[in-house]
Fold this sequence. Notes:
mainly beta
Amino acid sequence: MVLLAVTTAGAVSGASWNAVLSDASGRPVSGAMIKLHSSSGKREYTVTTASSGRFGFADILEGTYELSVTIAEKEWKATAPFAVQDATVLTMALQVGTQGQEVRFVASASEGMLVTSANCCCWQLAL
């Protein structure tokens, strides 16, 4: 499971996620459908990437989610569900691979990311 969290001040509300989807070469992917499906099966969020590859989710309720990306009827999935906590601001970018059909979370040191597992099974945003 992947834990994506950031400490925020103020009232508790749904989480948000604003980032970019890119291909394995780092080029932005436009027109892709990104879907978050709650492990409980009760919630689903869907967005389509802009020409710049940017996407945004607002008011994501706390819970565990499965992630999938669909481009031209081909689907990529994250290998493990991830947890979203209330009032978090997610900035983790996504990247689809050329081999297999796996979508990866991508972070850079400039984003203040702490990778807490060598196998990348748990990340936490540090601001």
